[in-house]
From TrEMBL:
Keywords tagged on the record: Phosphopantetheine, Phosphoprotein, Transferase
GO biological process, one term: fatty acid biosynthetic process
Transmembrane domains' residue ranges: none
Gene Ontology molecular function, alphabetical: fatty acid synthase activity
Stated name of the protein: Ketoacyl-synthetase C-terminal extension
PANTHER family per record: FATTY ACID SYNTHASE, SI:DKEY-61P9.11
Amino acid sequence: MYNVNDISKYILQELKQGNISKDAALNLVKKLNMKDEIAIIGMGCRLKDTEDYEEYWDTIVKENGKVHRCQKSRIDLIRSNMPSSTINEETKFSKGSYMDGLDMFDYSFFGFKKEEADYLPPSLRISLEVVYRALEDAGYLGEQLQNNKMSVFLGNNFTKDTYFSYLKMCLENQFYSIPLEGNLFNITSGLATRIAGCFDLKGMAYMVDASCPSAAVAIHNACTAIKTKQCSTAIAGGMLFDLTPIKRCNMSNWIFLHPDDVITKMFDENPGGGYIGEGMGVLVLKSLKEAIEDGDSIHGIISGMSFNNNGSDGNFTQSCMEDVKTATVNAFKDAQVDVNDIGFLIDEGYPNKMEQGIELSGLIAGFNRFTNKKQFCGLGGIANYGYLQSSIGVFSMMLCSLALKKKIIPPVYHFCTPTDAVNLCRSPFYVSDIPKEWICQEGHSRYAVSHIYGYGGTNMVFVLKEPPAVEKKEKREREQELFILTTKTKKSMLKMIEQYITFLSEEKDVNLLDICYTASTKRMIFREYRLAIAAHDVQDLIGKLKMVLRGELNSEEIVFAEHEVTEKEKNTKIRYTSVSDKTLCEIAAEFGQQKSFLFGELYQDCGAEFCKIPKYIFDRESCWVFKDKNMNQLKFILQNIKAGKSTEQGDNH
């Protein structure tokens, strides 16, 4: 087997013999010596009040707090399953960062029937939507998913499910008589495998439970799988949901013991305390070399990582300084980073003074192995959303990537007085209390670090690097472009058209070629509602979209079609065919007649690039198993009477 040196010598020999140009040789050597790094090419998230990572960024930068008393609408979802004494006053609801609308789901979009969707756990529903958002963000939908070997790695803390889960609630509300599918939908490993099934992903798919670092372990495993060629692309991240946000049995009671009127203040003399934060986030990962070659949009780069355990040092709930130091040193070596280029570090955010002191001491010692420089790296956290526990790793890396890309160091929420657990003035760190421009030495890259610790002694450190500069392609002007839009429901179609009109009217730097390329080749193609428009320019497209809303479809350049999908079609994959030598209007007409094309063939050698376009609008409705227990009991009795069975509950022996 040839090594790098042998191949480099061969390239040099070919250059000397004039078989390749100097530029080509230089490009080959650069690729050959490029470090094996992982690109983040897509991101998706769901947190309290947001489904958008840009809004997540704004919350952190503007120091908005999302920790409040749990909303009544969440308690109403579990009211029939909780003793009335635990939920009869709002003061008994937990404080934290709790999502709303756990019952809302666009079940038909993901191929479920309403009666099936009722039994899907909220964690699976939200995971499906967040993964879709990440793939949408990466441009890996539609024809891009053909014959793929994408893998799915997700982390979760399943401990809470051991005494209250959605399956338990379904069983109670159905008097322990639920269909087989109801049980199968709630198999914990199904969180990953159902995503693989829904998107037809052919790589590995499994769940990880590693306490707080669960999402980080999933990302670590995904990076390792890509580096070892087990898969080319991966979806990785994690989640945390607390179905019972009441004081008697919420997750905060396991971790935080304090009054519920304190404020979390990271790296502060008085860190206050913490509250549980719900979250679901994923990254789409790919080899950096391949991402650059394929023209993917890159949010950030995972340059190095390290993963160890305290062993018998420390204790189950407390980290060990030496092992944090070891993990930090190993991550820096793996990244081959100049430590002085690291400008931002997110610690996992456990709001305990002693634990923060231990972790910071280990991190300081790790930095000091490579530099004596003081106060050059800003500390950060995401306490605005509470303690995100098993999902904290993915949100930490998401924030690092956004900070690197935007070249801004975000502030720490509610910071007042520096902790005295360590001497920050004599350390590499400082606490930024306002958003700060991230200035970098010329010729150097910006780097950030994510540190996560978990019960049981797990230490994880990731080194992230800013994305490479992107050169714009030269575009070839064409007379017309074909705009494609498909949805599962008419409601979604009309809302999407309105959203596109707003987007095209308000965005300054929109390019018709890029928009049409992205919409047709990087998004899902559905059978139910299809729109195809041959447009001359952006203004022409806006005008024709408005014509569709008015019902003016008397032009061969506008094709709008509705199709009632049969059961056979639901179980049949869409087959993509070549556009061959057809005109755009011919393609549009056939597309409206349920023919699907490899639209990518329209964009060869024209400089088309993936760009941001409006997101798909889900058509959600409530899916929950009988919130009213009394109504359910009546239904149970009537069903049994109709079946000629006894209506008594319990054993009849």
